[in-house]
Write a structure and sequence with these properties.
Chain lengths: 119, 119
Amino acid sequence: MVVFHDTVALDAEPPSSEVVDRIFRALADATRRDIIRRTLIEEESISSLAETYDMSFAAVQKHVSTLVSAGLVDKTAHGRERRVRARPDTIRHAQSLLRQYEQLWRDRIDRLDQLLADD
Amino acid sequence: MVVFHDTVALDAEPPSSEVVDRIFRALADATRRDIIRRTLIEEESISSLAETYDMSFAAVQKHVSTLVSAGLVDKTAHGRERRVRARPDTIRHAQSLLRQYEQLWRDRIDRLDQLLADD
DNA sequence: CTAACGTGCAACCTGATGGTTGTATTTCAC
DNA sequence: GTGAAATACAACCATCAGGTTGCACGTTAG
């Protein structure tokens, strides 16, 4: 039995809509999603990330920076490198937001069922 | 009753990254998320939606149109009204994408555990 | 020490986004 | 039948996003 405890982020400060905007906006780009995927698997430097994309190093740098300010990845200095690492907690946060929408839907179904049962 | 079909079928096997882009992009706006929330609870016309936002009717129309082309809501004609209704399946789709990322993270943890166990 | 590497950053361009207003069309109420 | 309501749509505008190039700077390798 698995217990889900992903409502953690909700009992703190209500996540401002700007923060949520930034998270989903950051997820709305295939290159950035790929960076998340790769850095979930293992830490990578920006240049090693940049090698596989058909765009300039600076463009990849910008994508990483977007992900950092959305809280989806961390960047840590190791010598001249910056190692990028995904933050699963933020991903889980986005997941929990979507789950709340699904819950609204379930509540609606429950209410409709209740209406039918009342007949 | 007329149903508008300018959405993309997301049941298609490989959800092209453009489709995913559009889903997350559509979610990256507080007004649009609120429209989703309200139309998950119950169907609403565009004008009834527009009443509560501090922007023009046309702006709300555009937001709805963005949501439609992301497959996050449906628009159905009832007389002179267009009733907007959220599509929980697309929301669930976005959720499942995030869940896949989380799975990558778990796989990584498992591999690290395995490395430790090998010692 | 010096050259190459990895990065940060600014300036710039282009297309997309999010808002506006105005006009046309269809439908409903009276 | 006429006017108001609900919507569609186009044109327009300001800002933002995603890409580029060029240059500066710390770090590492030889």
